[in-house]
Design goal:
The chain is mostly helical. The protein has a domain of about 45 residues. Helix content is about 60%, strand content about 0%. It has 6 helices and no strands. The longest helix has 14 residues. The termini are far apart. The mean pLDDT is about 80.
Length: about 90
Amino acid sequence: NKKAFVELLFWKSPAAATEMIKGYGSLQDEEGPARSRVAPWTPQEEQELRELYWKYKEVEGEDVIAAILPHLPAPGRTRRQVVKQLVRM
């Protein structure tokens, strides 16, 4: 990038610095396929998650998400995905 010296006058995040090095738009190319790999929640999965949450939320001394994960119909869900979906619902 011939005009990198101008870019360096201003504070950059790590993502912006990577984009300067690899070329503008490269970050969007990398993020697109990664985000599309996550399967959306189906209404049946949401209903199952809701039921499991109500079942395990009152158990004292136990992590609710850890109790829910083994019982989900889709085994590929991560803890983060489950928490994010519960917050969204």
